């Protein structure tokens, strides 16, 4: 029997727009409470400080209004599901831009406020199917906004890890979109139907070559929570450590995903 054809997941553009703005607002509210000592704290992202990380988030969101201000590309060159695999080569350049932005904007509150105002104005005029350019290729605005939920959720988690007690909340729609896109990326990287990966309450995907499960309890099952999955997919947590800490349950001979992770650099 040939493998079942995978359906491309769709996202509600209205909810995604709201999720991006809401999560950015959550980060803004938290950043304005940080002290100079907290802003100088290290993060788990190399030599970035909390200040650098906060500035990077404005850059990640400002990319929307910046791209919309430019002429639309002639055609689409990047599918949403391909985006997670394009991020690693850009890391060095992004680090340089981030440090420059942080140094040039000592008033982070003002930087966040200006960024928020520009993105609201830009989105109010732009249709979902409008093509925009990015560092990795041209894609629709609707798809690009889904990638911004990944940037926002992943780095919100980085900020929470860097500053004890910060506890920036996660917008439910942003967390769901981030979880689902990275789960679908795993299924694209390791197509198949022998292993079921469950990330309640947001995603269930089948992946890994082997006998396809058709009914009953799958022979190979992986289950974890959304934030642990996101940390695994982005290299914040190693598979072996997540298993040892009981953050992931994995049963079956094809349930070891360690060789497939991380998905993003």
Condensed summary:
The protein is of the alpha+beta class. Helix content is 48%, strand content 9%.
How would you characterize this protein structure?
The protein has helices spanning about 15-30, 35-40, 50-70, 90-105, 110-125, 140-160, 170-190, 225-235, 240-245, and strands at about 130-135, 140, 195-200, 205, 220-225, 250. With about 260 residues, the protein is of the alpha+beta class. It folds into two domains: about 15-175, Up-down Bundle (Four Helix Bundle (Hemerythrin (Met), subunit A)), CATH 1.20.120.450; about 190-260, Nonspecific Lipid-transfer Protein, Chain A. Helix 1 (about 15-30) crosses helix 7. The two termini are about 35 Å apart. The model is unreliable at about 1-5 (pLDDT under 50).
Instruction: Tell me about the largest β-sheet.
Output: 4 strands, mixed
The value of Rg in angstroms is: 19 Å
Could you spell the SSE succession in H and E letters?
A: HHHHHEEHHEEEHHE
- Distance from first to last alpha carbon: 36 Å
Average pLDDT reading: 93
How much of the sequence lies in strands comes to 5-15%
Structural class: alpha+beta
User: Which ranges are low-confidence, i.e. pLDDT below 50, for 5 or more consecutive residues?
Assistant: 1-5
Task: Please state the oligomeric state of the protein chains shown.
Answer: single chain
Number of strands: 6
Report the CATH architecture of the largest domain: Up-down Bundle
The number of domains is 2
Can you tell me the CATH class of the largest domain?
Mainly Alpha
The gross shape turns out to be globular
What do we call the CATH topology of the largest domain?
Four Helix Bundle (Hemerythrin (Met), subunit A)
* CATH-assigned homologous superfamily of the largest domain: dinb family like domain
- Name the strands of the widest sheet in spatial order: 4-3-5-6
Helix content: 40-55%
Q: Helical region count?
A: 9
